[in-house]
Design a protein that fits this description.
Strand content: 5-15%
CATH class of the largest domain: Alpha Beta
Low-confidence stretches: 407-417
Number of helices: 12
Strand order of the largest sheet: 1-7-6-5-4-2-3
Structural class: alpha/beta
Number of domains: 2
Helix content: 40-55%
Oligomer: single chain
Number of strands: 13
CATH architecture of the largest domain: 3-Layer(aba) Sandwich
Amino acid sequence: MAQDRKTLPTQGRSWESISAQMSALKEKDVDWRNGRAAVYVFNAGEDVLRVARDAYALFQTENGLGPLAFPSLKSMEDEVIQMGLDLLHAPDEACGHMTSGGTESILLAVKTCRDQARALRPEIERPNIVVPVSAHPAFDKACHYFGLEIRRTPLREDRRANPEAMAEAIDADTLMLVGSAPCFPYGLIDPMEELSDLALRTGLWLHVDACVGAYFLPFARMNGVDVPPFDFELPGVSSLSGDLHKYGYASKGASTLYHRSPEQRSFQIFASDAWPAGAMSTPTIAGTRPGGAIASAWAVLEYLGESGYRRLARQVCEAREALTEGIQAIDGLETYGEPNLSIMLFGGAEVDPYALYGRMLRRGWFSGLVTEPRAIHLMLAPSHAEVAPAYLSDLAECVREVTSAAGPGETRRVRYN
């Protein structure tokens, strides 16, 4: 046995001691409850957290694999899907399922497209999908798992997908086109109307990765934000993925995958009777599906309703506006592009953003980074509206520290680790 390997305790411990140890471990985690994280966690307030947590706990042992045993979960999942389809302008026959997260939703979309092509286009020898370079790596994972080639194409100058470049990458073996609403690196919506037209002209499947935007964009639009068409109102859209555990504010992990028709969705289903326990049919990659995730998503949707989601979308946009204005007022910093949703980037030619990131991290602020351009990446939640002044104050101080760390004529790029 390995000398340092953790072993099972000979005797069980009290919950009090276990809880104390877990709390101690948690002290090293980012303080997301107080708005210090601009990625991974989407804090909509203590009341929403409580609803999500309590609903999850009520169904933490139930299993979505067994709809006959747990019709409550089937009923809630069906209603979650119906609400999403209504928000996303889906036709009457459209359908969908909940999944464990955006990656599973994307994997299932690619797998379903591949299996449909195998049935309808058997002449294909080297199947591929065409995506913009800003598309999520989950598409690379899907192609790796399912034996497809992924073709990443350059963006337009505005960092959105380039339909012309994507059209040039299409050949007789292409199965799918992908657009994001919005993409994670830049927070920008790809030109979905043009991609829809391209999909219709070529007869290809168009998947919209709205894992970030599906439960944010409809409400931002209701609030007057300029949101172009991106969902099933575009006739070329075949499928769409959207995460409930992002701006749906449900517990992890809850996502959705929507299909334009049941015929298309039929290629998603896995069925087998090759064992002694009878036939099994599953719509997702997972067999066991945590009932708590389904219950949490349903409860939060019911709790917030349209008015609640509009209020939270407004808070996110207000946080972005305040941070944009404040960052642009700091000498040496600039924001990139004109994002109008929940994701923004900033950096500067004279202040290395990676060094700045390290300084902010030491002050307890956790965010993302982008490599092109070199920038700090903020994915905002409603709670960030309250902490924007504190963030900007620390940011201005960190800029002064990074600037003073480099002497005249020296590089201002400093290791952030």
